[in-house]
């Protein structure tokens, strides 16, 4: 269990303006196919070739993921937003298609929290307040559920556009435990798998954030 003090001790290095925050709730929702893997070392020649492809867009952020023992939905808080993505399908190349289903700004009302708990697939506790700040949400709602675990995640992401796909190399920590990850994503799964193979990464297992974090904190996948 992470402390609230630790949660508030870090913040994103990229602050959202009011206009950017509003835009997070707008726009067409397009599910994206993703390949990702995790490790503790660099990803060989493939990573080196990606880094040689051009200048990276570097983003640094601090987030809190909420892991559920009963669900593999991706639920996190970043930049003051409760963000949920659900796994739609896995294709024959073992690529995963993820769909955003919720972005909600704190404080969260009861109706929104109910939707979040539908994603957790656990019983919602009694909600005494009409709405909850982030602090109250973690302390009074998440910590009240034995099937939920909050994980503090810090990321330094280096992003590239290669063959139309988004390619990301990142260093991350899960409750201060360090890992490295590399990912390729796009709405078209053929573009994703072709880019994976182009850099010789198809020998690595496709591991999403939820699997990696659950393994890190000792939660059964």
Produce the secondary structure layout:
Elements lengths: L3 H5 L9 H6 L8 E8 L4 H8 L5 E12 L5 E5 L2 E10 L5 E10 L2 E2 H11 L10 E2 L1 H9 L5 E15 L2 E10 L2 E10 L2 H10 L10 H9 L4
Q: Could you give a quick summary of the protein structure above?
A:
The protein is an alpha+beta fold and 221 residues long.
Core attributes:
single chain, 8-stranded antiparallel beta barrel, alpha+beta, disordered N terminus, 221 residues, two-stranded antiparallel sheet
Description:
It is a single chain. The protein has 7 helices and 10 strands. The protein has one domain: Hypothetical Protein Pfu-838710-001, CATH 2.40.320. The N terminus is likely disordered. The chain is 26% helix and 38% strand. The strands form 2 sheets. Strands 1-5-4-3-2-8-9-10 form an 8-stranded antiparallel beta barrel, surrounded by 4 helices. Strands 6-7 form a two-stranded antiparallel sheet.
The low-pLDDT segments are: 1-26
In total, the number of strands is 10
**Largest sheet composition:** 8 strands, antiparallel, barrel
What share of residues is helical? 25-40%
